[in-house]
Amino acid sequence: MLEVKEELVVECSIEKALNIIGGKWSFLILKQLFEGTKRFGEIQKSIPKISPKALTDTLRHLEENEVVNRKVTPTVPVTVEYSLTEKGQALHKILKEMKIWGSQWA
């Protein structure tokens, strides 16, 4: 009789955190949202090299991972505002430490 061994998968919590945060633009977007609620255009102006597609994709990723809130107000034109959730605010201390580390070692 053949014995089937199940493969044990151990998830790394750092890897999980990086998957939630997302790509390279996430850090710059989060930095802007730590200052408070912003509209799409405000975020885009504050990050000159980001394309509208990259900004949209990153905001969607952060929203899907419950880091960012998206609030739509039915005005003409529609007003969309982004803010951090409690989960997103919890990243502030971590990113601040990364900034300090980067200035010291980069």
Automatic annotation (TrEMBL):
SUPFAM superfamilies: Winged helix' DNA-binding domain. It holds the Pfam family HxlR. One of its GO terms (molecular function) is DNA binding. The keyword DNA-binding applies. Keywords: DNA-binding, Transcription, Transcription regulation. Signal peptide: none annotated. Residues 12-106 form the HTH hxlR-type domain. This is Helix-turn-helix transcriptional regulator.
